[in-house]
Protein 1
Amino acid sequence: MATGTAAVEAPPLSTAWGDKAQASTLTDSLRGSRDRLTVRPASDAGWRRTAARPLCALRTQAEEEKGHPWPQPLVSHYARYFRDGNRTEYEGLVAGRQQRLTRAVVMAALAERDQEDWLDEVVDGAYLLCEQSSWSWAAHDDVFTRSAHVVPDRTHPYVDLGAGEVAAQLAWLDLLLGDALEERAPGLRKRLREEAHQRVIRPFLDRLDWHWLGLNGDVHNWNPWIHSNIIVAALLLVDDPEVQAQTIARCIEGLDRFLDSIPADGAIDEGFAYWWNGAGRALEGLALLEEATGGELNADLPVIRAMVAFPHRMHLGHRWFLNVADGPARAHEGLPWNMLHRWAVRLGDSEAAAHAATFMDAEPDPDSRSGLGRVLTSLTQASSSTARSEPSKRVQLRPGWGTYLSSVQIMVARQTPGSTNGLTLAAKGGHNGEHHNHRDVGSVVVAVEGVPLLVDAGQPTYTAQTFGPDRYQIRAMQSAWHSVPAPFGLEQGTGPGFTAVVLQEPTPEEPTLALGLGDAYGLGHPEQWIRTSLLNREPGSVVIDDRWNLPAPPPEGTPDVDITYLVAGTVSIGQDATAAITSAGSPTVSSPVGLRLRWKPTTAVVLVDEWHLDDPLLSDIWGDKLTRLRFRMPAENRASGAFTLTVEATP
């Protein structure tokens, strides 16, 4: 945005909608909104088409768990976060409870009228959430910092991701089954409204110090995730028209801050995985606003078009995507590709639409882990949509040479344009003050046949340490375990000042990204370390060239100059300055794939470190281990020198 004496450009929604987004106008435009939503009550005839779908996995799990005790999060689980940093035990039980409720809601919607035991299952699950002392996750609650207590305080509800998810889930089930619930358990719907009001709506309206509002200029994925869920709760659980309009107007202000923070190229610095719970949540909220207002609030904006294109631009092949920051390298199952497909079709982005359609076909049934709203939207759209492309038109997952997003300094380049065949090179600049940051300035990822073998480890299991002062003691966050240099054994620094400077931007004809990395290590000048990453299409090779001219080692450094690469698969070091990497196997590739590495100077010493993975989030992606190759420069090349790694696919 412009600063100083220049005119300040208004944020996108304010510019597009003007007074339509004000509470005074919304009071009228939201009247009757419930009847305009795509998701209809279970009594609607459209659910008969959905009932014909097998929904095998969801149905099987729902039937197996019905009649058994519900997951029961206890205060001892909640307190663990404050005692030993474990956040997954409590969050896992809460998630299990909500996922079971989602499955029960779908089964109740599809059940015959005489199968009221499914309604009882929904009643029990919804009431358990109402009785749950906190809807917030322990890792986010301020109860400890405010009072040194480890027990949730019902009088001071904390509005976080967890609270927003519960409020939205209760709102969706009220829309779907409200009349049947009132008949089966009179008073439950009143309780749902009271709890949502006290725990979410009122605190949201009363307080402006929620960090996720973005009022301090730091806007991240919490903003659209929570605001979109509050929109659902306000539409479906708030009966007072003025309070409803006031709540939604404030949500629009919040979403506007998020959209205003998105660069023109649509890049998300948190990466592909967080796109779904950031930009994706914003798209869901905007679509719901358009439905609720009968098209009065229409979001065909340039920033939306750029956001929709981001996921397919990060695609490497199969289920593999470029992962930066806290993101896994392989896409989760159950992502709402249907939502992305609908936006892409609407905006006329055939590339994004074809890419999303491919994943929709691979995941025909919704996954309860994605949340009730996404499940219901998926079922509703699947039963009525005719917008999918024909399968014969979906052979190219990522058309073109690749992409370059200047706002985050990310290049993804393919050896075979329009295909994942051969080599794919991803190179990243950026800075170390990005959201969910890892110290990965200058890192590279190389995939062959769509399978990454030079890799970024990605996201480990979250604990209290993950977002605390000791974050960078976690191996997966350190530059020492990314494919970057280590001049004098230094770690990269933390903060936006530890950054890359772009010296050459890639083009379709010359997919080369040259970066000055000196500032990332606090060396004094960016060009004291220059890394050039390029893809040679004709010979079929990736070349990563490092050149440096270093000052004297700092006191905290060592005499060594290393260049590190993180490898997935089996590594075999040759006797002639070569190494072979073979994939550990992939369910999407019929036979192993491999890379051959060559390097100069050949006198560099190769140090091999194995990282045996005991974190399930990492081992599920990479198997038992990752391997770090450290190329240590000979003494004569420490102060200044060059090192070139050439990567080729094995026959």
Note: Residues 1-7, 385-398 have pLDDT under 50 and may be disordered.
Protein 2
Amino acid sequence: MIIKRIYKSSWFVKVVFVVSLFAIIFIAGLGYKHITNLSKSTEMVIHTYKVNVELEQILSYLKDSETGQRGYIITQDSLYLKPFIEGRKKVNNSFAELKYLTSDNPEQQKNLKELSSLIDKRLDNLEIASNYAANDQTDLTRFKDVFQEGKNYMGAIRNKLNYMISIENDLLKKRKEEYVSDARFTPVFLYSLILLTLVLMYAAYAKINSNLEKLKKSNQQLEIFKESTNQSEIINKHGSWRWNVEEDSFYFSDNLFRLLGEEPGSFAQTIENFMKFVHPEDVEKLSSQVDEMKENKDLPFIVYRVIHKSGDTRYLKAYGKSTVNSEGITQLLGTTTDITDEIDHYNTLEKRNQELELNNKELQAFNYVASHDLQEPLRKIQTFLSRLEDREQDNFSESGKKYVERINNAASRMRLLIDDLLQYSRTNKSDEILKNSDINKLLEDAQQDLAEVIVAKNATITTVKIPEMKVIPFQIQQLFGNLIGNSLKYSAKDRNPIIAISYDKVEASDDQQLSKALYDEYHRITISDNGIGFEQEYAEKIFTLFNRLHNKDEYSGTGIGLSICKKIVDNHSGFIFAKGEPNIGAVFSIYLPLV
């Protein structure tokens, strides 16, 4: 795996080429060294041969001198002295050559000195013997001694020469071995290194070939990516541009031309040509931003208008960020987006917001009318109806009394409906601020408001300790009042009301009802009763405005109370769910976010 990972790495080819280059240089160096060593070995072998030849030459020259001397002694012919005279000269020449050839060998230099002394003595001996012969004194005892002495010198010279030749022969043997070793090892070594280099270069070639295949695929993918980018720019109505800071040159993408209402490449890519399409009222602003961009190498978000040749005005938003590429060149990369549709949507939204604000004002005016103008005639109706009952009660027929009662009930229901509508319209979060509140106190206050009904119905209410929460206090008190009041209103006739209030903390992920929750944790307050209950199919409809499950003659109410509860919980970004069983009771679960 490691080898495979190394082979696939981007630096593998570079390493292989560097190694191959150094290997070639190394091979060339070693090859030169080995060839030099081989040449040197050859030269040393030849050098040894030369030394031996010169040593043998010296012996030959001495023999020639000795032979010439003997010929002269026997014949007294001076012609035989010529080899003696020339031999001395030749010996001197050979001796000088030997001295040069053995200059790197101290032992041979020492032997040469000794040999030189022996040769000089031998040559002097030959000259003395020749002088005896010239004076015809060969019969003298001294001549015989000189002659014998020369023979001894000659033996010593021969021994010295043989010793020196043996030394050279030992060197010759050693140098021949070095030569043979170099001659045998150099080709093998060079071949091995060349083979190794070829293997490395083949690996590099294989890697290059593999990279070329990958490069082809990458180029194909880049072409696909480029085309998809072009299509993406067209679909998303944006174009890209690039400013080369050092060269002060611009590049526009094809779709940037289209955003200007032009065909790609229809004009030279310069900022001056681009400015020709900018709305006259925005030219100064954009020019100022461009100048600042060139100075600060940055372009913040800017919105401006362009005019197409068709006369169509479009809104564009541009943004640019400075970058430095791998070659150290500073460029400003930017994008320009057509936001005309967004501007239109924004204008439409603004118009609708204005309409909504107007509706809110009208609603406030309605609230005022409902709280004053509508209730004023209603109060008068009830007042005059009360007077009519007090003064004319005895004069009414039975049917008249029923009509007066119905008018009175209708007026009371009308007043209750107006009060509930006002209460519903005022349940608005926008004017209130969430704050930490004692929920137990709010619950107690809600029960105090219903104290008379609780006592009248002999109801039992059980509660638990509830922690502080961040809420709109009066709305939460209203929520508790409506839910407890609802349980009292719809209590069963055959049993006393029992209302249980419990609390726990839940994780949104653990409760299936909180699938659309925006928070992770919630407070859950549960209010359950043993009243008449309802069918579960109506569990959501009961929170709808004016929705009633029972006849108004059976149970009083306007159908707004639970709608107010739903609105209060929505104001707190919470949830409220109802669960009922006919003749068993109902359970209301309130979820408020833990914030």
Note: The mean pLDDT is 76.
Protein 3
Amino acid sequence: MTQDPAAADGGRPAGTGGIPGASNALGAEPSAYLRQHAGNPVHWRPFGDEAFAFAAARDVPVFLSIGYAACHWCHVMAGESFEDQDTADYLNAHFVPVKVDREERPDVDAVYMAATQAISGEGGWPMSVFLLPDGRAFHAGTYYPPRPMPGRPSFRQVLEAVEEAWRERRGAVEQNAATLARGLAAAQAASAVRLDAPAPELRPELLADAVRALARAEDSDGGFGAAPKFPPSSVLEFLLRHAAVPSDTAALARDLAGRTLAAMARSALYDRVEGGFARYSVTRDWSVPHFEKMLYDNAQLLRCYLHWVRLGGTAGFPAAEAAEAAGSTADWMLGALGLTGPGGPDALASSLDADTVVDGEHVEGGSYVWTPAELAELLGPEDGERTAALMGVHGHGGGPDAGAPLHPGRALDAAEAALWQRVRPALRRARAEWPQPARDEKVVAGWNGLAVAALADAGALLERPALLAAAERIAGYLERVHWTPGGPAGAGRLVRVSHHGTGRGIEGLLEDYAFCAEGLLALYAVTGRIRWYTFAGDLLAAARVRFASTGALRDAVGESAQLANAQGGAAGAEPFDDATPSGAAAFAGALLSHAALSGAAEDRALAGTILSLLPPLAARAPRAAGWLLATAQAALAGPLEATVVGPDTPQRAALHRALLNSPSPGLVIALAAEEAAPGQEVPLLRGRTAGPDGTPRVYLCRNMVCALPVGSVAALGEQLASMAE
């Protein structure tokens, strides 16, 4: 029998409403988002069995509110409704309110986002979902205002309507919940990756069709679709890979990627003062950002800009301009999100808030906007006026004294670039004195894995050893804090989140294992340190056990009975990208790279099975399947296996650098940089030896067919070009 949770509190009334055992229970939670709500008069509880048991004991619905620390509209709804005593009293009396940090519990967010979209036709945060005490959803929406608006009821009206339906029409409520759960189960079944199904052959025409579909969806202001406009990171990675392989659509892919990358780097989405990109733009021309800055966006975009540099750029968007954006973004990630360890940042925090608290009020973008008067006062009348004109500060949207983020919206000429380089240091110093947005300091394993890959690439391509050293420190933190070796069937366990150097909470999702493995393999390619190759292999082996051992791939390991109820007992893998690549697509990509290094045929076979998701999506929904497309492009272009052997000399460094600078999407690099213990060496390196005179050389193979080893950069370039055809 489930114990009444009120008994744990001695049955004493707490707070308004006199509900035994009820109080706001978020004060001790490590999540910054949950702690933001710890002072609300709402009797919030964290998501878990205790909250649902309490709802069952009281015979009331659960009100589930999902958001995240950097979310502007989450702050708005909190101020309007959750901090209002009357609203809180009604919520406490008729519901069990539950708060979820979507970044700590993406499994919860994914299930109830699907329910919200099915019920309301929209999705977003804050998400507001009404549940039976067993976890099944029956009504949902997103932000609700304190007073009715055209087409949107007030939050109080929604609460009263749900309470009345619960009291007067319980049977209909439960029937709605059952119908929705069956629908979600059917949707899971329809998109399931069956691991016993034969993988269809990938055809290049699929990828060409996807490029053409993306070209039809391109917006004249850069990017895809209308406002709100998000950085299409996964799609960009596909286009960059496609552009690197000769085909009829390679030039089209290159132009699409270049226009989008240029538009974002010259827009208000990109912080020209400190570096880094905002989450999205509320306008189609990228001129008004939604100011929160997320680790996952910046890690992905950093890699995209680096890969544009590797392609060589275009006249419309030169590689040097992309390299500058990449370098400043890497610096911003480490400076603004770096959690300092003994040797520098050894993990990266999740985000900076969209809002800045100024004189006790939340001001969206308060740390990023400038007025013409502020620029003139800081820089002097002449430079201030020129900077305001150059950077789009001209009473943007609200009269001559209104502020705007600094952005040119176009390429700078030489004189303009010189002006900007002269005034930027003063702008940075001044802004550092302003109130700053809050930082969410939780460390998410998968997002740090994305950062490891990006910083490893940045260290190599920008020739900045400090960035590579940071990537190694972060990888070491993931191994030390988030990873526990061993476990069921010999598989280790990756924890998704850590706070203050301690892992806690749910096990990582498939995406966490995959992003970390991808980052470690990228780090191995640059450093040649066997430690990172081995750690990546351990992660992929554990992911197989946890997410690919039940006949169908799944995103999570099933932490909650309520989530199972909500989706009709079904659990699967989401094929579509969200703000980050889908876990399934990222897993396939990491498996492909690992297979090329290890020779594990089962890894390549499993990757092929996952890519069976692609054919119906390639032309129909390419914007939502960017990482599947990128992974398929790598599969079709490779495996292109390169081994670098011989003594550590300038000649070996030049050969290695030439490989790292190659844009070939199917290229996997093994560097013989250290001696391995017996049985621990990278299989791809076995039997590869230096030249007869002990000089370094490269072995380049494709599909197990190898060319003669070469010892010069010129000869290596010829081999790479011939194998790309």
Note: The longest strand covers residues 493-499.
